[in-house]
Fold these 2 entries.
Entry 1:
Amino acid sequence: MTMMLRQIKEDIAVALEKDPAARNALEVLILYPGVHALIAYRVTHWLWGIGFKFIARALSQFARWVTGIEIHPAAIIGKRFFIDHGMGVVIGETSEIGDNVFVYQAVTLGGLATKKGKRHPTVSDDVVIGAGAKVLGPIKVGCNTKIGSGSVVLQDVPEYSTVIGVPGRVVFSGISSEMEDEEGPESFPDPVARAIECMLDRLPEMEKEIRQLKETLNENGIVLPDSPPIDEAPRKKISG
């Protein structure tokens, strides 16, 4: 019980550290639903562990009704976990979350199977999950990873990665640990910028492949009409 109280105190301190809008511990304790849900989880997880599973589930459902955040008592959550805003967050029964994980509103750590056993994600340390992201199935998200808002992740994600899209795809991976975030999730790579960089890197290769395809077709007697370069293409006059 003493350890649980120490953990709750740390949860409040983490909210003060990670949310610039937080002014003092009393405000966090009274007004932050993410902290309320996490405190309820700490209690229900302890009850679940000592065998009072029905009471644990009942209290977790009450916490869901009050906060809009659903955390199953059997889930495993590490230290320095923070839910920002929080409404709509769902963390399933067999989810495992490491230390220093940052989650925004409407995130789901859910399952795809109805069979018993491991069916929810494992999220490693120092991960940021953007608003509305869905991480589904018994997959593993590597440490120091950022999952973009609205992404749907269905496969394992390597460490030091940035994931965006539906389905989620890795657009950047392999950041040196020396580049690890020091001041909060804002310093992680921008997933949209990384996606644009990937597309720009791919363009020269695509142009080369198109030229090779044309040459192959010409060698086989198939001649395609030449298209004017992009910068010489006729432009429509915009009136009005």
Entry 2:
Amino acid sequence: MGKVAPERQVALVVSPSELRLPAADYLSLLANISSPIVSSPNLPNLLHAVIDGARAVTGACYGALEVFDRAGRVQVSAASGGPQDDKAPDAVRQEDVELLAWLRHHSRPLRLEHASAHPRIVALSQHAVASAAFLGIPIRCGSEALGALCVMGRTGGGEFTATDENALVLLASQAALAICNTERCQREMAAHAEVEAGQRLQTLVEMSPVGVLVVDAATERIALVNREMQRLTRSPCVPGDPVDQCRRGIVYRRADGSMYASNELPIERAMREGENVRAEEVRFEFADGGSAPTLISAAPVYSPEGQIRAGVSIIQDISPLEDVERLRSEFLGMVSHELKTPLAAIKGAAATVLGSPEPFSPVETRELFSIINNQSDRLRGMVDNVLQMASIESGSLSISPAPVELGALLRDAVASFTRVEGGRDIRVPDPRDLPTVQVDRARILQVMANLLSNAAKFSQPESPITISAERDSTQVIVHVRDQGRGIPREKLPHLFRKFSRIHENGDSRLSGTGLGLAISKGIVEAHGGRIWAETPGEGLGSTFSFTLPLAMQQPVLARGAGAEAPAHRVTERAQVLIMDDEVPTLRYVQRHLRQAGYQPLPAVSAAEVVTLVEHKQPALVLLALHVTEVNGIDLFRRIRAISSVPVIILAASDDQDATARALNAGVDDYITKPFSSSELLARVAAALRHRPNTDANEERPSFAVGGLTVNFAERRVTVGGHEVHLTATEYKVLRELVVHAGQVLTHDQLLRRAWGPEYSQEPELVRSLVRHLRQKLGEDARRPRYILTERQVGYHMSRA
């Protein structure tokens, strides 16, 4: 019986004594050879199995086989026996290549007592074949000539028999079928890979933040269009539509204001002239008066023959860049105007002193120097505001929190403000009722100064300003209320953006750079809090509120440039799960979390979020409020059913109602897009800092009883030093039993904690899982060592 060679697994080696076998053994050998042929996973191994099998059943000294492609080129070959070449021991001899190429087109098997009897073989073979027996078989799949195999010379001499020929015909037929199947599988795999690549490309194009348009040059119909392109053109055009359908109702203008003809657009030039267009500025003007500035790039797509098959156009909306440029220009004009006022006062005071022919009295001199000093402080404050805003936007604003008595802080803030704005009625709460907060004192004084100044600007001098505070288990909320003009409702979403002004009516009292509230927002968020404004309506006053963290026994330092790393180890390499189908936001969050020392876990679907929460148990979840697949609030409820992990919602700036619903549903916090890295990291740190410390692994790193050890930090379970692999639900049940060791947990308690709140009255589900769990722990249910049964009630774990 043939043996499998260890180096090829499908090759067979036959000794001379095996060449003459009884008929039954011969058929058994043939069947044994056929098995590796039909099951060989790849073409080279398949050929080795065929040629070794051919030698095995015929007793040939040498065998060779080649498979050709449709162009007649050798696709793969194999040889066995004969002189061995150290460099290529399984290669077909060069002199047999043409012989096999000729034999593959032979209509029938060719069996010769002496190879020299056939003049074609003599002409094609350059080696000595005069005394060698020869048997050649073409390999065909239907009418297609795939290749050929041949064997030469028999061990012990003699010619090949009709039985040998029939055996080789059978092997050749099996080989042909296996080769066809292998090639078909390879084609199917290639086609599948191409489909997957196409799907990935389609997803990438669809999620691209730039518009993509591909037009077939021959038909001038759309071959590919993504959602951003449809948004930019305000057109629902789809593949197959004429390209003109995307252009209806749009006037295209150059940067100089001149209008494009339809055949002058970048994609038309790319298809007609083969021009490569890069970042050409084009403004879309719509029938309703709206417009969209864009940058368009276009390029032709060529066929292998060099003909233009299609045109590709990439369109980028640069409206945000224009808005930034407009704000920058407004800011420069605003700052220039604001800087001129103190500079004019300083210059005026200095010029008065220098230009006076008479010396001033001490009182007059002191008054002039006081003007210079006050205006210099005002000027320095403006410059500091600009620098602080830059630090907030770059995420490098550093804070140094320490325990501070809130009552003393508010009293100092009011005292500083009244020194400048004397005569204002500012009401503060009793400091004895206020807690200690963990804040950077100087930064929060700045926030209070901004809010008090804002309240004074927009209310009458005789109306009071009221400061109040309320607290919960983790934070205190400070309110600053005035009885002034109130805030227009449409201004609320933009209130804390830089350069934002609440009222613009030329009143000199209301002048400023528009940075105060934006800076306050950055400072509060760097503490892990949030700030917001509320108003009943114009003329009814307004309330600005912000949160501050309560002081803890062990202070936690916020992260930022120049700040120390957190002392609390809960954030060290903590895993943070992120789901957002806005790719730029996802990458932005990942990058900054990784730089801050967290481990980001990106998820692309709701199912993946639930799976990662269950199996990875992240320290925090960042969840977009609106994603394509599912509503964020519904997904939050699914998360809360299996875990108490803190969840922060990534909310759109214009969807305050949905944000309120998320907070009412129980989410821990929210961040409004767009947000700075400092706000992101501060809110993450605050959520982790306030996370209830109820997990057993927070109290002790592991649990051990008998030979069973549960390592909470690594989620590893070992029995007698050998690791036990548990499913996520099995681990949950074991963990609950361990955390409550010595306490009986009912079937319903285990169901709710391991499977979710919707499960109840299904004790058999728990019993089945405990049976499997006991088996994995290697204990007998009749004499349990670890999990003990309380009949008709539930289970409990013996104490460590």
